[in-house]
Amino acid sequence: MKKKGKNHLVSIGQQKRDPNRYPKGLNREKVQAIIEHYENQTEDQAVEEDEAAFNDRAITMMAVPIALVPKVQKLISKRAG
């Protein structure tokens, strides 16, 4: 059933399509869960999480000049597959 809206027809009873595009492996529900995790995190928990990431020997942190960030992101995405 369709109902005339202000500027267009609106389907009644149909769920709106999510206009967002998500990275591979993510969807609306997963993104919402991530948002809720960080919004409900205490400051101490956030510091603990940051320190754990910084101390993780499997990753490295580095400073990248802002002008090079797009090129570095592109290189990483190519290597990640």
Fold and architecture overview:
It contains 3 helices and 2 strands; from the N terminus they run E-E-H-H-H. With 81 residues, the protein is mostly helical. A hairpin with a 4-residue loop joins strand 1 and strand 2. It has a two-stranded antiparallel ribbon. The chain has one domain (22-80). The model has no long low-confidence stretch (mean pLDDT 86).
Tally of domains: 1
Query: How many E strands?
Result: 2
CA-based gyration radius: 20 Å
Tally the helices: what do you get? 3
Order of the strands making up the biggest sheet? 1-2
Sequence-ordered SSE layout with sheet pairings:
Elements: E1 2-4, E2 9-11, H1 28-39, H2 43-55, H3 69-80
Antiparallel strand pairs: 1-2
Summarize the structure.
Helices cover 46% and strands 7% of the residues. It contains 3 helices and 2 strands; from the N terminus they run ββααα. A two-stranded antiparallel ribbon has the order 1-2.
What are its keywords?
2 strands, about 80 residues, about 45% helix, mainly alpha, two-stranded antiparallel ribbon
